[in-house]
Amino acid sequence: MAKSHPTDPTADGTPVIALRGVTKTYANGKSALRDVNLSVPEGDFVFLVGPSGAGKSTLIRLLIREELATRGKVMLEGRDLARLKRRDVPKIRRRIGIVFQDFKLLPNKSVRDNVAFALEVTGTPRASIKPAVERVLRVVGLAGQADQRPSELSGGEQQRTAIARALVHDPHLFIADEPTGNLDPLISWEIIQLLLRINEMGVTVLMATHNADVVTALRKRVVGLEDGRVVRDETGAAYHRED
Ligand SMILES: Nc1ncnc2c1ncn2[C@@H]1O[C@H](COP(=O)(O)OP(=O)(O)OP(=O)(O)O)[C@@H](O)[C@H]1O
Ligand SMILES: [Mg+2]
Fold first, then answer.
1. Which residue of 2, 82, 168, 216 sits 20 to 30 Å from the alpha carbon of 95, by its own alpha carbon?
2. 28 pocket-lining for ligand 1 (C-beta < 6 Å)
3. Which numbered atom of ligand 1 lies nearest the CA of 59?
């Protein structure tokens, strides 16, 4: 997927994500992130962990430019998000695929149409929508359920639909904010396997999670936040610190 982009702006080693001294203080005075530094190279798989309220979702909101940093720099593929021109925001957003704990699917549309809608709203030519949708539905293993509506799917299938929708733009970065929070352990593992496959296709993955079993089993990079600060950043790590 991302590997096939011929004019890959990160091919020169620019990190996909770079935060430099980032503080986010919300309007109510709450500082959700404090002087955060983080660099994520292309192809990395990163678990973002920490107690409820530590700032994980806030960090993600900064990455998709839903919020701006109060201080410091948030850079995506080398581009400072605070200095992005308004017309460039949708272009950058399409380089990111994102899924959440609640799948945020359109209830009155089929699986196929939920995924197709993501391309329709960006003005993708009709002729290229169908093959792109069929391709991602095969990737997530939902080709057989394409005509069903979200209410006719299991939780795992709903999340896989959301993943298909997030993948259909060929993102360079895939962000998952607690994607298994509503799923039982077995189905959670299926979703994780899918994220690992997406990572193997060359897509950088950042996943915020409280799922200790998954984090500890996979021994990936673990970035820990506590009270808005990065308190650990270890590769091959467990959910809980082992020292
Ligand atoms: N829009 C907002 N306005 C004010 N404070 C906010 C806002 N959003 C989040 N916060 C506060 O910022 C802090 C960090 O919240 P955030 O949602 O980033 O935490 P989190 O690590 O994602 O937690 P969880 O694991 O529960 O999802 C919390 O204290 C929260 O109350
Ligand atoms: Mg959160």
1. 216
2. yes
3. 18
